[in-house]
């Protein structure tokens, strides 16, 4: 009669050869004590395990008797009975508590447990693992092992900086692998995408008509929920000719002060920026100095003299072209700002007030006012730059009001210290119509000339009966474009002597230019 050890060796040989034991061999099987056929307690399952982890594939049977169990993967036998067949050191039978075996001399598996342990799993370990009972008609369960692999970006269309010309179409690609298949998303560092979105998904990102606002560091990120996302970066540089804008088109200053003229220049590659007065290029002298910080280029004029007033320009250039910005340096007053209420407390009188910033004492004001014209009387040629349309019932009334200047004994001019001087004036207009809307504008003059005409200001007189008057918006109704140069008087303009007015100067020492 065969010994148990001989039978074990023979069955192991047959498993390794891929041949099942025949009927005559199974006739030698020793059935369980109650004569029942063994069956599986654990069902086949699918395990999703991250790479690098350890997995235990369970296999428990009832009534194991003397039947031999084996683990197989495809045609390869991993274990047969207690014998490990595969040379892979990561594979082992899970140790069990000592138990009794129906086959004397063979280590037993407690409770019919025959679990397989696989350590440090790798992507190639994915597949089907079969636990088989060596009966006449072999019985088996199958576990499917799916290995979860963290995302990895294996292709990026551009590894270094990507330089494109302005207006070009840009396509950036990013491909990744992993299990499950990762999703690729695009973002831009410290900014939204050119489309305005914070993130878009897809293997590629396309930018149409690239401009300087499209430049930046783009990031593609691959994520599949396993481990940490993988990221790659592409730096996009858009090459373009300089684009120049001035911080202020007109800079007001005074004699002896310091003036700063500023141009904002965007360009790639970085531009060379030169400053000119009229057509003469300016260099660095004791009086002139230029410096830059980022895209901000500044010309500093120290100890301003009358000869410094005039037209300046900054010219930015690089290999893709050049551009110019223009700045006017002047000593004339700034635009007048009206600060009186838009609703008069009287039906035929209005107290109008305004202020101007000037580094020199204002010597004269010109106030223009008229009743607002109805739409069918409005002229399309009204106030085109330096002209006013006089005549009809909407003609302009003009008032010349002297400022402090050097003739006003109550004021000292110019101020004894550098600084912006806010100079205020008010004037009482009489003979107005009740419940009417009027328009007003004003100009100011100092020793350097007349400033630009102020925007139009609207005010309203009170009705005869206050309850019939609808109060307008609390916000001043001001509109109109600034005018250039002196305002010429028409022969039909009315020169009205001021009924009474007040002139006030407020010195602001902290500001040198405005």
TrEMBL record:
Q: Which PANTHER family match?
A: CONTACTIN 5, PROTEIN TURTLE-LIKE PROTEIN
Where in the numbering of this chain does the Ig-like domain appear?
Answer: 38-142, 151-235, 242-330
Q: Where is the signal peptide?
A: 1-21
Keyword tags: Immunoglobulin domain, Repeat, Signal
Q: Which organism is it from?
A: Nicrophorus vespilloides
**Top-rank lineage group of the source organism:** Eukaryota
Recorded protein name is Protein amalgam-like
Task: Tell me if Repeat is a UniProt keyword of this record.
Answer: yes
